[in-house]
Design brief:
The chain is mainly alpha-helical. The chain has 5 helices and 2 strands; from the N terminus they run αααββαα.
């Protein structure tokens, strides 16, 4: 059960890494992102697909660009992660 949760967290981490790279280098294509992040293009493509479905990026003729939703996500990212950490802390046995 926890291994599945760990895999999901790692995947979300990759999506966030891709979103950050798009925000920092937009517009940017799959191959440039793959080189920049040292990840295989199929993983970049999947993350871009998920981010686009969720409304965090959009395609442009020159490559991926972030949306206002991504700006909002990054503005509150630390607080949201702290909330998740607190939730996980409550699951620990003392």
């Amino acid at each position: 059960m926890l291994e599945k949760m760990k895999e999901e967290i790692e995947l979300v981490g990759r999506h966030l890494e891709v979103a950050r790279a798009v925000a920092d280098h937009q517009p940017i294509g799959i191959m440039k992102l793959a080189d920049l992040l040292d990840l295989p293009p199929h993983r970049i493509r999947y993350s871009l697909h998920i981010l686009e479905q969720l409304g965090y990026i959009r395609a442009s003729p020159d490559g991926a660009v972030v949306t206002e939703r991504t700006v909002e996500l990054f503005m509150h990212l630390n607080e949201n992660l702290d909330e998740l950490i607190r939730l996980l802390e409550t699951m620990k046995r003392h």
